[in-house]
Amino acid sequence: MSTLSGKRILLGVTGSIAAYKAADILRRLKEQGAVVRVVMTKNAARFVSKLTFETLSEMPVLIDEFAEHDKAGIGHILATDDADLSLIAPATANIIGKIAAGIADDALTSAVMALECPIVIAPAMNDRMYRNPVLQRNIRFLKEQGVRFIEPETGPLACGTVGQGRLADPDGIVQEIVSFFSPKELSGVNVLVTAGPTQEPLDAVRFISNPSTGKMGYAVAQAARERGASVTLISGPTHLTPPPGIKVIKVRTAAEMRRAVMASSGESRVVIMAAAVSDFKPALLSDRKVKKDSLPPVLQLERTDDILRELGSAKGRLLLVGFAAETDNVVENAVRKLKDKNLDLIVVNNVLQEGTGFGCDTNAVTIIDRSGSAVDIPMMTKTEVAVRVIDKIVELAANTGILP
Ligand code: CTP
User: Fold this and answer.
1) Which of 135, 165, 180, 317 has the smallest C-beta neighbourhood within 10 Å, fewest atoms?
2) CA of 171 to the centre of ligand 1 (A)
3) What is the 3 state secondary structure string of the chain?
4) Is residue 157 scored above 90 in pLDDT?
5) 273 lines ligand 1 (CB under 6 A)
6) pLDDT tens-place string over residues 169-201
7) Which of 51, 159, 263, 398 is catalytic?
8) Which of 304, 308, 320 for mutating ligand 1's site (highest number of atoms within 8 Å of CB)?
9) What is the pLDDT of residue 72?
């Protein structure tokens, strides 16, 4: 089941250059199963046509409540009737001011006035406008009324300057919405997640590593956060943007990852080792670049410390989750690792199966617990697989008294 299945979202779009990003947000909300109805301002329609939103939402779009079509289709009251949540993205300084002042002089502001569901606002504007004390006062006031804000990002702005005002990343906005609807069973629980590969240098420019991109671990961290956990993500080198609301510790080598895990695991109730930690490291030749003529033809390798095994050997009340990538005897090998490393759960995938494993956006896994129960999760996005893994962790945590 998609994470927003059956949720009705009213998407308000206002006249900012970032209005085109609202089309992407709408598409992603729909992908998650939401029913999205768009209400836009006349200025928003100068940037992106109503037809774009009508096509993507498969619903009539409300702009002018006095237009013939809109009267026959949806009025501002009807548009708000069954909404579970309203998202205004992008929101200009003008719409924020109008909502704060209780003005209802167009379809969107009238709809907002009639809303009884929670409101989330993602502002987008010039950085000087964003810093304006009147706007900031309006934001503070609306927050006091329970309106949630997704802060704009800092970066190059359409007006040519650099500052805070760029609409938050559409992916992050959708994650916030998903998070809003998720049950919060892990609230008050510290969850530690590792992700990505490690790199084991042999000199200043060469290292051994593996093709892990970190996507699975990042998705797990995000899914845990969506269920209310306080998440620390210890990440090897990746190109991924960390999900919002998560503490991220970046490391490079297996030794650095071990140190970071040991420093944080004491205060964690759940540790999920999704990282593809290198099992071997080369004996370091130099911290400078070694010329190729001086490189030995055969590399001496040393074993790295097995972080998961170390945690398992003294785990107390820790709920310990391992990942395994296998090619042969997939389930047997995973069960052996679960027992050897004293884990509560192991998530295993066959990396030879198409659409699974390193770098893919999808995965198909088997989740095995200590009782030997094995659940096959068929091919789905890593985000969805992560939700299934967290579902199982929530179930185990509840049974073992780990939840507060
Ligand atoms: N792991 C770890 N520390 C290491 C190596 C792996 O904590 N030095 C963790 C991984 O994060 C993963 C699990 O152990 O959760 C993988 O188990 P492992 O037995 O190391 O799998 P492989 O490296 O695939 O082992 P093998 O090559 O024997 O199959």
Assistant:
1) 317
2) 31
3) CCCCCCCEEEEEECCCCCHHHHHHHHHHHHHCCCEEEEEECHHHHHHCCHHHHHHHHCCCCECCCCCHHHHHCCCHHHHHCCCCEEEEEEECHHHHHHHHHCCCCCHHHHHHHHCCCCEEEEECCCHHHHHCHHHHHHHHHHHHCCCEECCCEEEECCCCCEEEEECCCHHHHHHHHHHHHCCCCCCCCEEEEEECECCEECCCCCEECCCCCCHHHHHHHHHHHHCCCEEEEEECCCCCCCCCCCEEEECCCHHHHHHHHHHHHCCCCEEEECCECCCEEECCCCCCCCCHHHCCCCCCEEECCCHHHHHHHCCCCCEEEEEEEECCCHHHHHHHHHHHCCCCEEEEEECCCCCCCCCCCEEEEEEEECCCCEEEEEEEEHHHHHHHHHHHHHHHHHHCCCCC
4) no
5) yes
6) 998 899 899 989 988 999 999 999 999 999 999
7) 159
8) 308
9) 47
Is the C-beta atom of 197 inside 6 A of ligand 1? Answer: no
Res. 2: pLDDT tops 90: no
Residue 324 Cβ inside 6 Å of ligand 1? The answer reads yes
Tens digits of per-residue pLDDT, 195-226?
A: 999 999 999 999 999 999 999 999 999 999 99
Question: Closest ligand 1 atom to the C-alpha of 305?
Answer: 8
Does the CB atom of residue 323 touch ligand 1 within 6 A?
yes
Is residue 150 within 6 Å of ligand 1 at its C-beta?
A: no
| Distance from Cα 33 to the centre of ligand 1, integer Å | 36
Does residue 275 line the site of ligand 1, with CB under 6 A? yes
**Measuring from atom 22 of ligand 1, which residue has the nearest CA?**
324
Q: Give residue 81's pLDDT.
A: 81
pLDDT band at 33 (very low <50, low <70, confident <90, very high): very high
Let me know if 117 is a catalytic residue. no
Q: From ligand 1's centre to the CA of 149, what distance in Å?
A: 40
pTM (predicted TM-score): 0.81
pLDDT of residue 401: 80
For the residues 329-338, what does the mean pLDDT come to?
A: 95
Check pLDDT > 80 for residue 166: yes
Asked whether the predicted pLDDT for residue 1 surpasses 60, the reply is: no
CA nearest ligand 1 atom 14, residue? 308
